[in-house]
Amino acid sequence: MAQVTVTINGKRYDISCDSGEEAHLTQLSQYVDRQVEELVVKVGQVGDARLLVMTSLLVADELSEVYSELDAVKDKKAEVTQNTFAPSDLELIATRIEGIAEKLEGR
Q1: pTM
Q2: Is the pLDDT score of 10 beyond 90?
Q3: How far is residue 97's CA from residue 99's CA, in Å, rounded to a whole number?
Q4: Domain count of the chain?
Q5: Domain span at 79
């Protein structure tokens, strides 16, 4: 087990994680912090608990969208032939992955 100290909305939190996951956890916390910062701009400092709940709902909504897109690809029964996808399916997946990567990188 390892421990990482992360900062979200100016508050420090000590979080336990598996060894080797420290960098990933730090990256995730930076993403959450950016989401909280965006909410603070929109709604102000409405309390840590409320901001974290609102941020959790926003992140859950993003995850829901990704699941919906994945289901759409499955529903289309993406043609998998010799480990290949139809070009339109690959484009959909690549676009979504790029969007997530940009958010994680803070662009």
Answers
A1: 0.66
A2: yes
A3: 5
A4: 1
A5: 2-105
